[in-house]
Each structure stands twice: as structure tokens, then as C-alpha cells.
């Protein structure tokens, strides 16, 4: 329900985006500067790299040449390199630049290419919640579907998924609009567990896969709403503490905009899929299907050379940006929620 989320009123929730992180905002870019493109995303192993190394001049020169290529020239070159040829021109340019960057850095003695992954697994979450057609300001949105899709960042595959429906408490009767939008029926939620019980199942699912203990992982969402609004509101309604493992996440819209140098208006789920040359698979506004399609975008970005990393967090009820200069940390081991009482 990505487009519908943007119409949600949150005047009654103490959530706001800090304005102190201006560097995280995505700005429209009609031309890619070779100098900016020459510096790779910095991984933990590269934090002290010297970008004055001659290899970066070669990368900048290659980027300048790629910037002058036509769409057909890009497609032919990508095909010759056995790389994906789908997507709009800017996406193909970024894919080709990332390929040359990796090749150059791997060939250069003492230099490491941006091939490190920050996490072993990425867990995609896209809630569905109760809603009205006009979303009145006093309406409390309750989570009615809790899906998760697990990505292995080493094999670049979707390896597992989780889905449970949730019984709402405050507004137990779903609106006709909500049923039509999400495909979730009244019978589905009536037979479901309440949110605290479903969250316990989520925690058990994560623990069984040894996430946060044996394997490093991060949560990924399509926008800030899922964690900062839906989960935040739901925890208050259910009178439980906000889960610590969900306090930081990857907002893929920010990552996509920053990586492909596009404005925020081009980072909706349907638009990202289209620009990458992908088609939506499944039923729109199904939480699990949305999560799978978001995972497909994340996989394509990883294949194109993007190093997805946490870029948003919750602190004291507020939504904050996480600057790229912060140390990279995985989500903590999941634990069952504590009561607010």
C-alpha cells in the first residue's frame, strides 16, 4: 500500500524527521559528475582508503566516456559483458560504471573494490494496515498483515519468507475500502492472533534463522512509514515496547535515489520496478507480494553494485536519518516484546 501510505495523517503521533541530516536528502540530478562517481561507496574495509590513487582517475575517465554513450551503445556494451540490459538509460549507465569500478579496483594492487556486503541477510518488511478511503486524522492504523522476505546478500537470492495476518483491536471491523485495497478479508483478521502474539512468532522466526547472533542482518522497508508510523502506532495500541531490533532500517527509497541519482518522485515501488526494467509480480497491496517485489529491487541494486546500509532509525519516538559516516552495525538479536505496563 505504498501510494496509500503517503496520505496517512500522523498529527497524533510523536514522529518527525530530523532536519539536521541534510546530506541524506536526494536531489534531482540531470548530469552525473565523473568526479563524484569516481569515489566508491566506502565499506568498513575502505574507510581509510586514499582516493588519490591513480586508479580513481582511470575510473573517472571511464565514467566520462559512459556518460556520453547512447542508450543503444550502453545496451550493446552491457550485453557484451553479459550484464543485465534491462532498465532506463540512467540505470544502465550506473550498472556499467559499477562494473568498471569493481574491475579496476580488483586489478589495482593494494586497493579493494566495493564488493563487501555489510550484512549477511536483509529482511524486507512491508506492513498492511487498517485504513479508510480518506484516512481521517483521528484514525488509528493497525497492522493487519506482517510479512517478511529474507534476502541472502552473498548468493543474491530470496531464501525465505514469513506471513501472518493480525487481528485489529481498536477498529476490528475492516472498511470496504481496506478489504478492496489489500485483499484481506474480515474472516482473515477475525481468525488471526493479536499483534503481540504475532510479533512473538516473528521473533521466533528470526531467532530460528540465527539472525543477529550467527548472521549479521538488517531490516529493509519501502519508505519510513512501516517502522516510524505503523509499528510505532501499533506498539502503543498493543501496550508493548517498540522492538529494539526494528529501531534501525534501510529505507530503500533513499538508497535507490542516492544510488541512481534520481529525485524522490521516482522512488515509488511501481516506478522503481519500471525504471529497472522489472514488472510487478503478484497482487498489489498484498504485504507479502509487495515485500517480494521490494526484495527484487534490492537484489537488482546489489547486483548493480549498491552497498545497501541502514539509513534511518527511531530514537525517543522520532524518525532520524543515519548518516553514511556512522559505523555500520547489524540489527541486534531479536527478543520478545516487553509490556509498557
UniProtKB/TrEMBL annotation:
Q: What reactions does this protein catalyze?
A: Exonucleolytic cleavage in the 3'- to 5'-direction to yield nucleoside 5'-phosphates
Q: Give the main location.
A: cytoplasm
Q: Which UniProt keywords apply?
A: Cytoplasm, Exonuclease, Hydrolase, Magnesium, Metal-binding, Nuclease, Nucleus, Phosphoprotein, RNA-binding, RNA-mediated gene silencing, rRNA processing
GO CC terms for this protein?
A: cytoplasm; nucleolus
Question: Tell me, what is an example of a GO biological process annotation in this record?
Answer: rRNA processing
Q: Which residues form the Exonuclease domain?
A: 121-307
InterPro entries referenced in this protein's UniProt entry, alphabetically: 3-5_Exoribonuclease (IPR051274), ERI-1_3'hExo-like (IPR047201), Ribonucl_H (IPR013520), RNaseH-like_sf (IPR012337), RNaseH_sf (IPR036397), SAP_dom (IPR003034), SAP_dom_sf (IPR036361)
**What are the Basic and acidic residues biased-composition ranges?**
1-27
Q: Which Pfam families match?
A: RNase_T, SAP
Molecular function terms, GO-annotated:
exoribonuclease II activity; metal ion binding; RNA binding
Region (Disordered) residue ranges read: 1-51, 319-341
Magnesium keyword on record: yes
> EC number(s) on record?
3.1.13.1
Bias class Pro residues marks the residues at 330-341
Enumerate the spans annotated as SAP domain. 66-100
* Cofactor(s), names only, from the UniProt record: Mg(2+)
| Protein location | Cytoplasm; Nucleus, Nucleolus
Q: Polar residues composition bias: which ranges?
A: 40-51
Organism domain of life: Eukaryota
Q: What is this protein called?
A: 3'-5' exoribonuclease 1
What is the species listed in this Swiss-Prot or TrEMBL entry? Zoarces viviparus
Amino acid at each position: 500500500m505504498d501510494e496509500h501510505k503517503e496520505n496517512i495523517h500522523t498529527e497524533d503521533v510523536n514522529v518527525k524527521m530530523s532536519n539536521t541530516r541534510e546530506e541524506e536528502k536526494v536531489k534531482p540530478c540531470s548530469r552525473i559528475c565523473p568526479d563524484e562517481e569516481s569515489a566508491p561507496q566506502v565499506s568498513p574495509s575502505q574507510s581509510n582508503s586514499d582516493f588519490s590513487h591513480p586508479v580513481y582517475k582511470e575510473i573517472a575517465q571511464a565514467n566520462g566516456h559512459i556518460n556520453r554513450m547512447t542508450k543503444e551503445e550502453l545496451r550493446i556494451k552491457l550485453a557484451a559483458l553479459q550484464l543485465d540490459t534491462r532498465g532506463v538509460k540512467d540505470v544502465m549507465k550506473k550498472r556499467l560504471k559499477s562494473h568498471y569500478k569493481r574491475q579496476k579496483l580488483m586489478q589495482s594492487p593494494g586497493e579493494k573494490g566495493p564488493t563487501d556486503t555489510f550484512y549477511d541477510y536483509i529482511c524486507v518488511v512491508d506492513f498492511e494496515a487498517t485504513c479508510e478511503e480518506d484516512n481521517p486524522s483521528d484514525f488509528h492504523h493497525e497492522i493487519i498483515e506482517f510479512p517478511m522476505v529474507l534476502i541472502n546478500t552473498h548468493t543474491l537470492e530470496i531464501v525465505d519468507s514469513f506471513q501472518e495476518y493480525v487481528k485489529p483491536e481498536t477498529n476490528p471491523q475492516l472498511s470496504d475500502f481496506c478489504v478492496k485495497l489489500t485483499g484481506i478479508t474480515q474472516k482473515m483478521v477475525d481468525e488471526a492472533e493479536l499483534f503481540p502474539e504475532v510479533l512473538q512468532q516473528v521473533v521466533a522466526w528470526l531467532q530460528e534463522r540465527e539472525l543477529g547472533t550467527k548472521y549479521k542482518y538488517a531490516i529493509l522497508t519501502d519508505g519510513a512509514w512501516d517502522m516510524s508510523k505503523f509499528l510505532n502506532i501499533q506498539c502503543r495500541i498493543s501496550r508493548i515496547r517498540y522492538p529494539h531490533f526494528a529501531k534501525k532500517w534501510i529505507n530503500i527509497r533513499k538508497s535507490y535515489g542516492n544510488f541512481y541519482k534520481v529525485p524522490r518522485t521516482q522512488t515509488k515501488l511501481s516506478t522503481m520496478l519500471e525504471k529497472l526494467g522489472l514488472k510487478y509480480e503478484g497482487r498489489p497491496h498484498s504485504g507479502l507480494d509487495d515485500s517480494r517485489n521490494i526484495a527484487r529491487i534490492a537484489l537488482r541494486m546489489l547486483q548493480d553494485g549498491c552497498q545497501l546500509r541502514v539509513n534511518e532509525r527511531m530514537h525517543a519516538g522520532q524518525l532520524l536519518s543515519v548518516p553514511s559516516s556512522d559505523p555500520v552495525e547489524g540489527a541486534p538479536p531479536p527478543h520478545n516484546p516487553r509490556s509498557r505496563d
